[in-house]
Amino acid sequence: MSHVASVHGAVEPAESPLTPESWGKLGMWIFLAGDAVGFGTLLAGYGMMRATSGDWPSPYEVLGINLTAAMTFLLICSSVTMVKGLEWLGKGDKGRAKAYLFYTALGGAIFVSLQAYEWSHLIHRGLLINGNPWGASLFGTSFFLVTGFHGLHVTAGVIYLLAMVRVVANRPQPAASYNAVEIAGLYWHFVDLVWIMVFTFMYLL
Amino acid sequence: MATAEHKHPNYMAIFWFLAILTVVEIAVIYMPLAKFTIGVLLCALALGKAALVAMYFMHLRFEARTLGMIAVVPLLIATLLIFVLLPDGFAVMKRTVGVKPAATEPAKH
Questions:
Q1: Helix, strand, or coil (residue A128)
Q2: ipTM score of the complex?
């Protein structure tokens, strides 16, 4: 760090002023802020399309919320296993940390599977990207776009978490992977946070 | 590098808060309330849950305040977007109302 700083002079401080642990953490926060704007745009657009449509179907009657409520609960649980994994890593227990990271990835994988099940069920009942039996065709378009965009994030998160299990396994010192796992955790909690919004605005409201 | 001297919040308490708020959300949509009231309640509950996740699971509460500002910016932008879209929305609404004469909405608000 100091070597780089001395070579480049006063280009940048070696330590991030906002996140003293690492620049990577600041980078993840900035990425997440950008990603959040993406989701915000989708949800604001959804709200506007819905508000200006004369025949928007009632989401919770068409989509059903029992399965999705369970999926919401699952994501919250996976967020808890994530923080627990990080906590164990902080205490130096690599084995438990890996296990909890794996449970988190497993929760995400089950979530995506349930979403695939839900999609196929809804498609079977006639909800298509370009039309549906209940009303405005944009209902299906926006539903698949937003939940699909989120599902893609969960899928990426599962891969990310499994990679982190390997990182923890490969680095001899637990402390050496703490920061990387914490950053992965930020991403995972963000995905959970976005689902809280999607669940509220696209299913319940 | 440091083995993070974060004070760990009580994660299980946050978990129960989130679980209970989810149940409340589902209960709210079946309550005999005005659609607008339900909407406001749901928005408030969702924002509350999101805040819990960001503050405690993402440790925002224990970070520098400026980092929190980075996190809040998207929320501001999303809110702004709604206002940016409003003129278009009204234009579309005018047209839709012209095409479908008061089919679904009884004239209230």
A1: strand
A2: 0.85
Verdict on whether the full-model pTM lies above 0.80? yes
Q: Which helix (H) or strand (E) holds A117?
A: helix A94-124
- Note the pLDDT of residue A5: 45
A122-129 long-range contacts, Cβ below 8 Å, gap at least 24? A122/A63, A127/A62
Pick the residue with more confidence: B7 or A89?
A89
Nearest-CA distance A15 → chain B (Å) = 11
**Residues of B in Cβ contact (< 8 Å) with A83:** 8, 11, 57
| Torsion sign over Cα A158, A24, A85, A72 | negative
Q: Which domains does chain A have, with CATH numbers?
A: 21-204 (1.20.120.80)
B3/A contact by beta carbon, under 8 A:
yes
A74 in reach of chain B (CB within 8 A) = no
How many C-beta atoms surround the C-beta of residue A196 within 10 A? 24
- Report CB contact under 8 Å: A204, B26: yes
